[in-house]
Specification:
Shape: elongated
Number of strands: 6
Radius of gyration: 23 Å
Strand order of the largest sheet: 1-2-3-4
Number of helices: 8
Length: 198
Amino acid sequence: MRRATLIAANVGRFFAFALIFLGIWQMFTGNLGGGIWLAFIGWFLDNAASSQVQQTLFRGLLAGHTVSQAMSTQCTAIPADLSLQLLVDEHILGRGQRCFLVNRNDTAVGLLTLHRIKMVPQADWAATSAAQVMLPLEQSVRISPDAELSAALRQMDSDGVNQLPVTQDDHVIGMLSREDIITFLRTLHELGTRRSVL
């Protein structure tokens, strides 16, 4: 499938360059409007094909790797009654953290991200607890540590999220973010263990 996708995308790029060349030629021979239109179609087709090639190569690099290899096990747990103001001051601005597990009685009950914090007016942060803003864990999209990294990335894309709780036997054992995946790929590159996508 990856080989077929790459071949199709590269054939698409060939036709895109042909359209761009034909459009430029028409512009110089007096057909300005038609030439610009053809060149624009070619440019659009080239962008679409290039994007498909990059996506295919990226997913090929992820093939054979699981969530457990890239996930972070250092996700910060915060108490449910912690105020948003303290959270922002001590954890976000103080330590640069962006995603938190909300705990109640030593059990993870929710997920709190910058996006959800920004939904609350800043004037109300001191009087708003993490539990009031969190996304309950049972409502969040979760993933297994044995899932393929490419499947995790597709899930993030389809659900419009930047991180996923990693759960096993209904217990959160880590977090997987887009940054974790990029860091993992960078590590593979530095170790020279990248796999062929063909």
